Amino acid sequence: MIFGRKSHSDLVAKHYEKVWGGSGRDVGFIGGPLSELPDGFKVLEFEPHGSRSMWTYATCGMSSGEDISPIELHMFSAHKSGEPVELLVATAHYHRTGSILTVGHTVNFGKPWIDASPCEYGLISLPYLDGPKLENFELHGRIAARCLWLVPITKSEMEFKKENGLEALEDRFDEAQFNYLDPMREAVC
Questions:
Q1: Any idea what DSSP says for residue 67?
Q2: Considering only 60-69, 94-103, 118-127, which range has the smallest mean pLDDT?
Q3: What is the pLDDT of residues 89-98, one digit of tens each?
Q4: What's the structural domain count of the chain?
């Protein structure tokens, strides 16, 4: 959908840039089923700067202006990496062609997050590091997309969440003060 001269994807990119500062670079991912994603879909890479010491990767155009519950996802990495890009594309594809995802859902990456990481699943969470200013991308007085955090988790954490709920898992994360940037971190449960 085109809003004035800017596409939905362009407006999402501007939202990220406003919240995170700096410009996102289109990583130019060419693998996978991109033809089954909305026109203009891309993954943006934001370099560390200022107080943000991590790389940020974010879908841009995973949602469309016509979606009932539009979402965009982002992941963090301690280092520049192609793995978060691939995982975001795969998760966006699953959301568009498989099951609609939202807060609290988990996805099976089918591979480690980075290298030999025990984190082979992703948890869709609120963007706790950036809060509502990132989460709620508003356009013309309505939520045009919810920008959510795709947190890499282990199988045991995914199973714990299924048995005990999202809040219980997030409490475990808080208690352990888990390092969300460490692909080799130990499971919190």
A1: -
A2: 60-69
A3: 999 999 999 9
A4: 1
Query: 93-108 b/e with 16+ CB inside 10 Å = b?
Result: bebbeeeebeeebbbe
54-90 pLDDT per residue, tens:
999 999 999 987 888 899 999 999 999 999 999 999 9
Report the alpha-carbon distance of residue 8 to residue 66 in Å, rounded: 10
User: How many residues are recorded in the chain?
Assistant: 189
The token pair that represents 155 in the structure block: 């199988």
**Residue 138, in any domain of the structure:** yes
Residues 45 and 25: beta-carbon distance below 8 Å: yes
Residue 30 structural domain = 2-155
8 Å CB contact between 175 and 187: no
Query: Does residue 182 form part of some domain?
Result: no
Q: How far is CA 107 from the centre of its chain?
A: 12
**Quick check: is 179 in a domain?**
no
SS3 category, 62: coil
